[in-house]
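In the design runs reported in the main text, the only information available to the sequence generator was the tokenized backbone. The following block is the verbatim input for one such run; it is reproduced so that readers can re-run the procedure and compare outputs position by position.
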């Protein structure tokens, strides 16, 4: 399979929550050697620098606890365009930045997929479901709203109107372990594929992911992966402001990435919530780069792998 050019796109978004530091995430990924690692794996790499936030216009919400609404709307508009453009030119890797960046990246990728007449599927690797809206979030932190936005929840006045929503049945969440009661009740009203850490403990992570990937392959879908640092257990990935004990282990995380690589389905990637201020000598940034390497084809042993639909694949890039 011909390898697409990897497009490294910085998204220094820090408006999605009150604890600052994620704006330094893109440069932390660069310093940890993401570009060099991709080169070593045989990919052409283009670092497009950082997306700039567009003009901030006055914005308000009925929920008085909402934080930095105008800034987050501005980021969403800028990242929507950056994502849609990048999808036509290579394999975009959006380096965050807090998870509110996915309001723009997933919406832009979905718009591109619609133009290609292909369904977009989303794999959400996160401790949180992020299915709130600006009206339902108790914290007011908009990094907890991107899935709600791209799936078409009400309450996103002022945000760009979506030309391509992602149906809940095309969203698979793995690693959940911090979902508030109101959000849990709303999720239950829809047909998301939800896998918390108990499901992983009882069944193993591989069967849960395999079922989802088989569906994506059968529908000839594009697959966007959104990887939050807090998907991982904080003992191995401390550089996140939303640590939740009991996350994915080193091996579980690498297995997910290797399976995604084998599938040949992944078309775009978010790396989010890395806060270098909270890191330990670059430990988390290095681990995230290693996970990307597994996604893009690094193996302990070279072995032939049969992809879904009978395809043989050597990298995740579709």
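Verbatim output:
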């Amino acid at each position: 399979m011909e390898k697409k050019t990897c497009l490294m796109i910085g998204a220094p978004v820090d408006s999605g929550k009150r604890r600052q530091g994620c704006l330094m995430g893109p440069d932390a990924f660069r310093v940890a050697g993401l570009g060099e690692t991709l080169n070593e794996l045989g990919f052409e790499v283009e670092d497009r620098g950082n997306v700039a936030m567009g003009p901030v216009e006055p914005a308000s919400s009925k929920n008085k606890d909402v934080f930095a609404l105008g800034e987050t709307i501005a980021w969403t508009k800028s990242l929507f365009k950056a994502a849609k453009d990048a999808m036509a030119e290579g394999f975009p890797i959006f380096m965050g930045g807090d998870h509110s960046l996915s309001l723009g990246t997933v919406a832009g990728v979905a718009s591109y997929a619609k133009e290609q007449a292909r369904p977009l599927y989303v794999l959400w690797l996160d401790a949180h479901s992020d299915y709130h809206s600006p009206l339902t979030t108790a914290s007011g932190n908009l990094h907890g709203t991107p899935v709600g936005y791209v799936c078409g929840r009400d309450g996103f006045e002022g945000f760009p109107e979506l030309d391509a929503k992602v149906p809940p049945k095309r969203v698979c969440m793995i690693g959940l372990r911090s979902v508030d009661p109101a959000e849990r009740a709303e999720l239950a009203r829809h047909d998301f594929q939800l896998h918390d850490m108990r499901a992983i403990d009882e069944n193993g992570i591989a069967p849960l992911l395999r079922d989802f990937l088989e569906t994506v392959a059968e529908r000839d879908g594009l697959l966007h992966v959104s990887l939050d640092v807090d998907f991982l257990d904080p003992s191995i990935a401390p550089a996140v402001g939303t640590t939740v004990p009991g996350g994915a282990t080193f091996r579980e995380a690498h297995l997910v990435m290797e399976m995604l690589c084998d599938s040949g389905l992944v078309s775009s990637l978010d790396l989010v919530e890395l806060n270098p201020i909270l890191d330990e000598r670059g430990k988390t940034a290095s681990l995230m780069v290693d996970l990307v390497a597994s996604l893009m084809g690094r193996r302990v042993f070279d072995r032939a792998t049969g992809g879904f639909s009978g395809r043989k694949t050597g990298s995740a890039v579709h």
